[in-house]
Each structure stands twice: as structure tokens, then as C-alpha cells.
Amino acid sequence: MTDKLESADPHTRVERPSDLELVVVRNFSAPVHLVYRAWADPALFRQWWVPRSYGMTLISCEMDVRVGGTYRLEIGHASMDQPMAFFGTYLEVEQDQRIVWTNEESPEGAVTTVSFVAHDGGTEVTISNLFPNAEALEHELASGACDGTAESLRQLEEFLQA
Q1: CB within 8 A of 125, min separation 6: which ones?
Q2: Higher pLDDT, residue 23 or 11
């Protein structure tokens, strides 16, 4: 059962291979080591990750990208009393190949795997989110997170081309 879902960006493919998994794929015209570094270096990550259309700011970006390391991202907006925090632990880190982390900000948090594969002179990035239950995946879809991910990946492409 792989359902292809509509994406706000024609360069981004979104699929739902099961009731628990959401997969986003995009190709970048940059080598694997540069794309990987944009995900693993907090100074670079903070330059592209938050979708601009959301009008939000990445207030804090702490990332210790190693097995057992943790991350904490805080996002703020003028209309918010306090920032939203995203945090978790890195489970697997293979340089230029994959990064796996937990999303611990809620009991419904997914385990995210980002894979980097050389493809046609560039890099294919596959983001797989494995949710603890079908309801958590449905909530993710209803929240519009796929559109935000597509926008962030478009910003990553722009960042890599600059």
C-alpha cells in the first residue's frame, strides 16, 4: 500500500507506504557531502530549515549530531507567548549516508530517518517518518507538515545553490 500524496512543490515527492510511515523525497543538484553537512551542521541547518512562509524564527538550534547526541530546536513567532520546542536523540549517524533521530516533544512523535544517496550527479534525500500509530500519522498529515517540509527542502536547494 503506497499512496502518493499531493505535494505543494513539484520537485518533492510525498508517499505513504503504510499506515505508520510518511516518506518525502527530493533530489538536490549538490554533492552528497554538502547536502549531508547542511543537515548535520547547526550553523548551516538554521539557515534553511524553518519555512519562510510561516513567519517564524529559529530562536535556538542546538545539535550534537552523533549517536546518543541530542538536539533541541526552538521556533518563535510574534503571536506566540512562548516558543515551540522540537527535541530528541540521534539514534544513528553515518556521515554522508544517513541520520536517524527521535522526535520526543510528544508521545506521538515519529522516528525520523534522513538518507543521502548520490543520484544523477546530485543527491537524493529521503526523509522517512515512522509514527507510533496511525492516528499520529493522520494528525501529521492534517497539520500541513508536508507542505512545510516541501518548503524547507526548496529553501535547502536555494541555500545549496548560493
Answers
A1: 25, 26, 27, 28, 35, 114, 115, 116, 153
A2: 23
